[in-house]
Structures are given as structure tokens and as C-alpha cells.
Design a protein that fits this description.
127 residues, mainly alpha, 4 helices, ABC1_dom, two-stranded antiparallel sheet, globular
């Protein structure tokens, strides 16, 4: 997309003044904790890592439909924010169009993070 730039130093610049959202300090901190937990996890199926990632996703405000697999919050965070994930926990699939996508169990997603999620999905798609 025209709003993603590779800067001279190799970093990515994302510019889109039509879609701007300021998130709270608490949301930024929790989102950063999610990213760190994703980056530092031992594997895609380590129970302790999945519990931490799930807890943080729920703290962000991710809500699942009743009866959803316990891995749902972690699978959602991995699907949205981690481009290296090959297999999602709980039998979920990476394709958002799959009936086994984490999207299928979402009851609600925090309004303030919709643009963050959308941006990460776009960037992963062009990476």
C-alpha cells in the first residue's frame, strides 16, 4: 500500500492520516507486553506461554463467544500480531476465511485496537 514506506535506515514507516487512533497508556503497555510475550515464547504450543499470551489478550479487551476453546485468546493474538506463526494453538487456522480462524470465536474486539490489528494484518500481507 502507498502508506507503508521503507525508510533509508531499513525501518518501516506507516503513514495514514485518514485512520488515526490514539490508544491509552494502559493499552499501549499491554500491547507491548503481548508483543514481548509473543517474541519470547519457547514454542507455539508451550502451555505457560499460551496462558500468558491469553491473559494479556483478555486484558486488552478481546472477548470470545461462550464455549470457545481456551486457546482462543492466544490464537487471536498470535494471528494478529505475530508474522512468524505457522500453526495456531487449539486447532485454529491462520486463514481468516477458514471456519477454524480465530475470528470465528471472537465475540468482540476492543474498538481502540481495530486499526492496530488492521495495520499488522496489512503489513504481514506485504512482508
Amino acid at each position: 500500500p502507498g502508506n507503508v514506506f521503507v525508510m533509508e535506515d531499513g525501518t518501516i514507516g506507516l503513514i495514514d492520516f485518514g485512520q488515526v487512533k490514539q490508544i491509552s497508556g494502559r493499552e499501549r503497555l499491554t500491547l507491548a507486553e503481548v508483543m514481548v510475550a509473543l517474541a519470547e515464547r519457547k514454542s507455539d504450543d508451550d502451555p505457560d506461554d499460551l496462558a500468558t499470551i491469553s491473559r494479556l489478550a483478555l486484558e486488552l479487551g478481546v472477548k470470545l463467544k461462550p464455549g470457545s476453546p481456551k486457546e482462543g485468546p492466544a490464537a487471536t493474538a498470535m494471528w494478529l500480531f505475530d508474522g512468524k506463526t505457522k500453526t495456531l494453538p487449539g486447532g485454529f487456522e491462520i486463514s481468516e476465511l477458514s471456519p477454524k480462524s480465530p475470528v470465528s470465536v471472537l465475540q468482540s474486539f476492543p474498538q481502540g485496537l481495530v486499526l492496530v490489528g488492521r495495520s499488522t494484518v496489512l503489513i504481514k500481507g506485504i512482508a
